[in-house]
Design a protein that fits this description.
Length: 243
């Protein structure tokens, strides 16, 4: 974990209620797709955890959904403003288990961390299949960016306005994939868990107090004991999950 000041380079709407923020700063503590940052906001006691969408040397991309006062405050920020970030938080995804044709499934705000994952997998010569789930076509984002990486992409919308009608589970193949990586709301994760044909890694969302394991507020029970989502997670192995 590292605390650093970042400077906003851009902060633009990507879809209704969803924004893409690019920042410059020290990204040296970020080591794996699926990690997150914790952002200090003026007037707010708790930091806001946001998944890392992409990063490079001195560059960080975050995609966030406006769901409360903190993210609403972020959506009004302008280029040049400084933000206090804790970086390198969480365990991230383990790419060593992917196999040749991993399946990546993201729902809504769970889509962004899968972009960096797909980028890393493609760099290793893997051929990821990607399923993205949204409520409507208007809310969909990152489809073209995943395609530009060379990933095979399927979009599912709950109202049927684009792609497969229904949920991500309605778009899941029966076979033909080597491993699963997924991130999204818990009902989606539970449904994917019940249908997946391989082992996999599931990234969970929990309310976090500190974001680095000190407060124990995001602790959950697994088959192998209690784990802190912010520290030993947010990524858990399929075999350890208790619903």
């Amino acid at each position: 974990m590292k605390r650093s000041l970042f400077t906003i380079q851009d902060n633009q709407p990507l879809a209704p209620g969803t924004y893409r923020m690019t920042l410059s700063g020290d990204t040296g503590a970020i080591t794996a797709p699926g990690q997150f940052v914790n952002i200090a906001l003026a007037g707010k006691f708790l930091r806001r955890p946001i998944s890392v969408c992409d990063w490079g040397e001195g560059s960080l991309t975050l995609i966030y959904k406006v769901v409360g006062q903190g993210t609403a405050q972020m959506s009004q920020m302008s280029p040049g403003q400084a933000l206090d970030l804790l970086t390198g938080l969480g365990n991230g995804y383990d790419l060593s288990k992917a196999g040749d044709r991993p399946l990546l499934i993201g729902g809504g705000a769970g889509v962004p961390p899968l972009y960096a994952l797909a980028k890393a997998l493609v760099a290793q010569g893997k051929r990821p299949q990607v399923i993205l789930g949204f409520n409507t076509r208007a809310e969909a984002f990152l489809e073209e960016e995943f395609q530009a990486l060379g990933a095979a992409v399927t979009v599912a919308t709950a109202d049927g306005s684009y792609g497969v009608r229904g949920f991500v589970t309605d778009a899941m193949p029966r076979d033909g994939y080597s491993y699963l990586y997924t991130c999204g709301p818990e009902p989606m994760l539970r449904a994917v868990y019940g249908k997946v044909a391989t082992s996999g890694q599931f990234s969970f969302e929990e309310r976090m107090g500190c974001g680095f394991g000190a407060c124990m507020g995001c602790t959950c029970e697994t088959k192998y004991g209690y784990k802190r989502i912010c520290r030993e997670g947010p990524v858990l192995e399929k075999e350890e999950i208790l619903w």
